[in-house]
């Protein structure tokens, strides 16, 4: 995979696109896959960007966080304003992981999003590791920064698993769970799905045991049960329980309904879209799983004349 395969524009028109595609070139074309090397490369790019004036009395870190907060507070992303604020935040403070997380969030709706997001999650993770190594800051305590690191590891794990790099995703998920054994981010079902894709069905099953039965957990359990039983008995019961928890998931997974790719404001529908993203590695990477879902989710066929007794109106 190269940036040419991703449809890189010939003449980027703004600083955000220029920076984004330069990072993608370093990651895909030049092989800068590990955090320290990619971070050093990003630092060299940012050193060439326009200088940002600091308000009186503010530190680079304080103003960088303030710029990201301004993006958070806007009702939408304005390419001419919001994206420049994110680049300015990184120029001021290259460890501003919040800005890199925003970049990944903005990319999410684009074509090839799971591939495009990977280097930005890596940069966020590297920045957060440096921040945690340096100790808690006046802005955020260590627990808050650790929680952000868990979210970044989860995002990178999903992006890797969705693009066929399930083994790499497993490592990211395990690191996230080491930081958050209580699993506030629902990592365990994602880990189970990645392990299932790599053929480690028993480990996948073990990953689910301590987890709470969230809708994602239930669908992951159905997927692992499919791998374990080839779609018989136990897997069918698990899928029925999962569909009860969220009936919107299987229509999206089987193509009966099209996902919007953005938040709808309907909690169950939005949850279903996130579950589908987490299940995508199993749908594409486990032979027969997608076909099994289509069979099991299909409405029952009622034979003609067997619909039951007809009652006359009185």
Question: In short, what is this structure?
Answer:
64% of the residues lie in helices and 0% in strands. The protein has 314 residues and is mainly alpha-helical. The longest helix is centred in the middle third of the chain and has 22 residues, at 113-134.
Q: What does the model show?
A:
The protein is an all-alpha fold. The chain has a domain at 1-140. It is 64% helix and 0% strand. It is built from 15 helices and no strands. The chain has helices spanning 15-29, 35-47, 60-73, 82-92, 97-107, 113-134, 142-162, 166-179, 187-197, 201-208, 215-229, 233-245, 249-253, 267-285, 289-297. α6 (113-134) runs antiparallel to α7, α9 (187-197) packs parallel to α11 and α11 (215-229) packs parallel to α14 (267-285). It is elongated and about 65 Å long. Mean pLDDT is 86; it is low at 301-314.
Instruction: Please report the number of helical segments.
Output: 15
Percent of sequence in beta strands: under 5%
Helix/strand-derived class? mainly alpha
Describe the largest sheet. none
> What is the arithmetic mean of pLDDT?
86
Task: Furnish the topology, listing elements before pairings.
Layout: H1 15-29, H2 35-47, H3 60-73, H4 82-92, H5 97-107, H6 113-134, H7 142-162, H8 166-179, H9 187-197, H10 201-208, H11 215-229, H12 233-245, H13 249-253, H14 267-285, H15 289-297
